[in-house]
Amino acid sequence: MELRHLRYFVAVAEALNFRRAAERLHVAQPALSKQIKQLEEGIGVQLLSRNTGGVSLTDAGAVLLDEARDILERVEMAASAAADAAIGKSGRLNVGNLGLLTASFLPTVLSEFRARYPQVDVNLIEVGMVDQLSALQAGQVHVGFMVGRTVSLPVGFEWVEVLSARPAVIMSREHPLASRPSIALSELAMEPLLTVAEPGKQTRHQQYLNETFAVRGIRHRPPRRVSSFESLIAMVESGLGVSILLPLSRGFDNVVFRPLKDKEDDLTAHLFAVWRKGTESRILKNFLKVLRG
């Protein structure tokens, strides 16, 4: 059984007349009759009762008509979905999320992307900095992110700089330093610093905090690890600690950001989007276009 058999059968079953069905399909009537006979022989049942007054459906034909209509409709929908995916209007996009490091811009980007391509299913997958390239190589994500002054990638990957920004101090509105227009790193030496990290692992954020203070000869309290970005925000709101992050695109009622007084270039964070070279995905290309702004 082939799709043309079902199309021919539906045409005949709806017209209940071989001549009119043949005209609708733009085929010769003998050829149409032959296709219907092949379908009946293939299934092993009679689908149509033929008589001088026209054609009528058998019980088996009536059942097949409903099923054939559903099949042809699903085939048409599948073809349409494939065509949409080819131009990036539908399909799936897996994005490697870096939590704190992407929270400053990714919500805005995803909102804009969804507004333009509402039929694309976007999945955020939490992937650590050191695992981004392996996740891309394995096809677990279509686009990932890396942070550094520059980016050095092995052969087979492409990248674009997403943003270059100076991190700021995040703290509770009730914090004594919140009234300051800017804050020096030295003023944070005795503050409880917060970072998102799994037990036993040092994240890029924790490394950044330690290095930022160390190169300036500032001794600070060891950063306190929390399990998630949401936990960090909750603790900051409650006055249980502060952190240094890229300013977030969304606001929080009891949290403020204050710029750093320190002006050295090493404080500037460069964030890069990374993907596999030669990717033909139109969805990815559309996402990168939105990402670039």
Automatic annotation (TrEMBL):
Coiled-coil regions, chain positions: none
Organism domain of life: Bacteria
SUPFAM superfamilies assigned: Periplasmic binding protein-like II, Winged helix' DNA-binding domain
Gene3D superfamilies membership: Periplasmic binding protein-like II, Winged helix-like DNA-binding domain superfamily/Winged helix DNA-binding domain
InterPro entries, alphabetized: LysR_HTH_N, LysR_subst-bd, WH-like_DNA-bd_sf, WH_DNA-bd_sf
Domain HTH lysR-type intervals: 1-58
Keywords, in A-Z order: DNA-binding, Transcription, Transcription regulation
Membrane-spanning ranges: none
GO molecular function: DNA binding; DNA-binding transcription factor activity
GO cellular component annotations of the record: protein-DNA complex
Protein family per UniProt: Belongs to the LysR transcriptional regulatory family.
Designated name of the protein: HTH lysR-type domain-containing protein
Natural source organism: Cephaloticoccus capnophilus
